[in-house]
Every structure is written in structure tokens, then in C-alpha cells.
Amino acid sequence: MKKEKINGAEALLRTIEAEGIDTIFGYPGGTIIPIYDKLYDWPGNLKHILVRHEQGAVHAAEGYARSTGKVGVCMATAGPGATNFITGIADAMMDSTPVICITAQVNADKLGTNFFQETDMIGITIPITKWNRQITSVHEIPAVMAQAFHIARSGRPGPVVISLTKNAQVEMVEYVFNPGKAIRELGLRKVTSREKRITSENIKRATELLNSSRKPLIIAGQGINISLAWKELEELAVQGNIPVATTLLGLGCINSNHPLNVGMVGMHGNIAPNSMTQQADVILAVGMRFSDRVTGDIKGYAPRARIIHIDIDRSEFGKNIKAGIKIQADAREVLTQLCQGIQYRDRQEWLDFAKEKKELERQKIFVPQLSKDDGPLKMAQVIEAISRHAGQERIIVSDVGQNQMFCARYSRFERRRGWITSGGLGTMGFGLPAAVGVAAGNPHSTVIAVMGDGGFQMNIQELGTLLQSGLAVKMVLLNNSYLGMVRQWQDLFFKKRYSATHLINPDFQTLMKAYHIPSSKVATHGELDEKIKEMVTAKGSFFLEAIVRQEENVFPMIPADRTLDDIIYENEKIHHHGNR
Length: 580
Ligand SMILES: Cc1ncc(C[n+]2csc(CCOP(=O)(O)OP(=O)(O)O)c2C)c(N)n1
Ligand SMILES: [Mg+2]
Hints:
This protein is an alpha/beta fold.
């Protein structure tokens, strides 16, 4: 019997469905119409969410991927549609997010002729993709798509770009999807027995080092979420009685209220884990990459610590911080093995140090930040109230800036994959479209997007996506009429010369009317709890605008290029550091 023939567009959609994906985020155009034509009456489970700008499609795919653990898929037409993907792709690369970005391309026989809307997406995206491939013939589609999914989600995940010429979308093929064979054809390098031996020897050395340590600190990053190592992380910490800090992306990989969780490291991190980094004798870094936002000036980083670095990507070893023990393997596997040899040690003095620093932060930062006074609302108060009212199944998505740091510092994280933010690239405009993707992937969760007035306006067009898709996102706008984080740096390091950071904003309430999104505004403490409750209990999308203090700064802070010993707590202290 002859196998049925289908066209390339249909073959592409079948591969996506076969990989367990139920939603594609995208935007059509002339070169990609054959795929949209197939979507028009697609008989399967695949939904398409029409965004309002292609950047939004990538961020939505990222939100979908990070909140569900699946691969996010987005698509765009050739040329401007494709180049609008770039910021999203770069964002996914920085945060190791598995997305497949399909961009249409002109007919294969027209490549290189400056054909209408021809842009070389392969050339453009080489440095910001884990892998990219141009498909010029229908026969390549099933195998290349299987490879794309494998590469996007395996090892250290990342973005894959598939540039699909128009002829390949319309040519006919006998459809056979054999991912196993396609992945074997990639000829990926296997871990050698020598490497396995080195790994197990290093696990033994690491166990001994941890067992003999008086002041160990685990620093857990996004790798914990990627390798699903939440349980193993907690087990290691509890069995060894070892405190755990997390990076910004690692927030939530251990519960906020866990007695061994000492908080977030980094520029606006908590005092305890930053100070502990400087005092620790052993640091176990898992699935984190010692970003400059975590280390400050690397010359003064963790001066007393021997460092064990666990990462699936060996290019991370020694890139920023040298580690004495390097273990290139899946975080979950390594943590499981470490659990087998770890011994409980009484570390009262060390844990008391953490307590002391926590108390210091409470007095110096939390109490004043959360105290009610006569002035306008503070961002911290809004975030804290959200945590109290929004239920444990909430997923918090943030934008970038002060809103993001307040969100990280004042939210309580009680569920896995419950925190989605743009870390490495710090992409303003990430929040709203990412939340759209989170909502698509998690219809039963409360999805809350916390944004600043600057970042919200960077992808504000995605309100149209909410309107049309009916997806539910609770938007919280922290409106300070400033590009707050840049203003903070101008305040602290540029003598308050607020160049181009003040924003004159539109009337957001009127705007919501135009989009038929129910909305509300809050400006006083008295109303805060009630307004937040109104938002979280609303059916569908809701927009809450909090008018917050205009010139508030996020503290503590470790100024860029300073060491973790140089924590500043308030505006006054900065003047000792001069203007840098
Ligand atoms: C796309 C992009 N452009 C510029 C920046 C630089 N930047 C970082 S934070 C920030 C200010 C953000 O302002 P807003 O969204 O109002 O948030 P706030 O800090 O006031 O909470 C800017 C301009 C960035 N991170 N991303
Ligand atoms: Mg702002």
C-alpha cells in the first residue's frame, strides 16, 4: 500500500503535535501562508495564538516552556517577521530556555537574490542560538524537526531557529516521523567511560569536601529547574544540614519558607547569602553560571571558599570563577549521588550567622520597606500583598527593572516553575507576552504579571493577544512614572542627573477600556488588600495599576564592579564609594 502524501506545512505541524506541544505562538505573512492555511482547519489539538508582534511570540513561547517544562514553539514570516524574533531568541539563549523559532524563507531557488523579505536568519542567529538549520526541501522536515526538539530540550536547553523555505512548505512528501533515527543521525558525542570515571571520582571528592566543611553553602540556579532536581536539592541540604541560596532564576527551586533557604544571591540579593558567600569554606554551585550580577567583582568573590561547580555545560567551568572540583553532568544525577555520601553535621554557628544576617536585613530593609506611613505606596508593599492573597498555585512573571527586583525580594515562592523572569538578558517587555505563554500552558493557575510602566509599554500591544485569545493574565503595573532602575543608578552614581528616565504615561485605565479588560487603580495602603483580592478573584484578565512612590530605590545593593563585601543599605552610604 502506498503511504499518503502530505505537504510540508502539514508535515511540520504533525511533528510539533507528535512532540506533545499543544500551542504555537505566531504571526502570519506571505511566505508562511501555507502553514497558516493548514492551521485554518487543523483537525488535531494544536492551537495557534495570534500575537501582536513577533517578539511577543518568542517571549510567549519562553513563558510556555519555562512554566510547563515542554518546548515552546513560535513562528513568523520571512524578513521583518523573522528579525522581530531576535530579542526573544537572545533572551532564550541567555536563560537556557528551550524554544523552537520557525521562520519562513523565500523559495530555495531565490535564496541570495535579495528577494522580497529575504533575510538570512541562519547568519543572523548563529551567536544567539543553540542550533539553527535552513530547510530547503520537504524531505528534510520530519528529521530536522525531530533534531530541533532534541537539541532544544536536551543537555543545556536553548533556542533553535528553523528557517523554512516556501517551496518546502508546499512540496509533497510521504510522511514518516522517526525521531530516534533522526537523533542518531546527528552523531552526538557520547560521554566516554573515562569521563564517567572522572565524574564519579569528583563526586567522591565533593562529598568528602562537604562532609569536612564547617561553613558550606549551596548556590542553586536555573539548572535545578531544568533537571527537575528540586527534591534532590532539598534532600542534600537537609541530610547534610547545609544552607541553600538561589540565584534570581533559581528562586522557587526550594520553598521560600524552608528553614535552610537563606535567600537570593547577587546585586540585589539578600544580605545573608551574599555575606555567607564571603565567609563560606565550601561553595557547591549547582546549575548556575557565576554571572557578574551574582559575583560582583570576581577578584573579591568568595575568598575563603573551595568551589565545587556542577553544570551540564562544560563551557561554564572557569569562565567566570575557577572551581577546584568541576562536575559536568545532570544536576539531578549528581545531587542524587552526593546524597548517598553526605553526612549530617552540626553547623549551629554557621546557621546562626545566617540568622543574624537575616535579622539585620529584616530590621534595616524589610521593616522600613513594609511599614505604612503617610506617603504613597511602595513597590514592596504591593508585592507582599500579592503573595498573601494570590494562593499557592500562582505563577509570577515579572518584567525587568525595580519591579523585577522587588518581585524577587518580596514574593514568597511555594511552587516549582512558579517564577518566570528574564535573567541574563534583562529584557524589558518580557513580562506581558511571557505571561500570555504561561497562561496558555497553565489554564488552571493564577498567572500574575508584575511590570513597570516602562517595560509594560515595550510590548503593550500584546493586550490585543489577551483580548482575542481570552487567556487570563492578572497584570499588576507598578507605576512610578520612571524608568526606575536606571533612575536609581542615576541617583546613586550620576549625581541625580535624571537624563531621559522620567515618563509621561498615558491613562492606562482608559486604555484598558479600549481592550475590554477590567481594571482598577490603587494608590493607598487602606485599599491595597481589597484591590489585590478583587484582582485575584476576577474571572479572566484583569489590570491593576498601583501608583507607587516615584523615587524609591531597591536595597540592599552591591554596586557593579564592587565585591560582595560592599553591600549598601541606603542612599547615604553610597557617597563613600564615589561616582562610578
Ligand atoms: C529592552 C530594554 N531596554 C532598556 C533596558 C535598560 N533598563 C533596565 S531597567 C530599565 C527601567 C525599567 O523601567 P520600568 O519598566 O518602569 O520599571 P521600574 O524600574 O520603574 O520598576 C531600563 C530602561 C532594558 N533592560 N531592556
Ligand atoms: Mg517604572
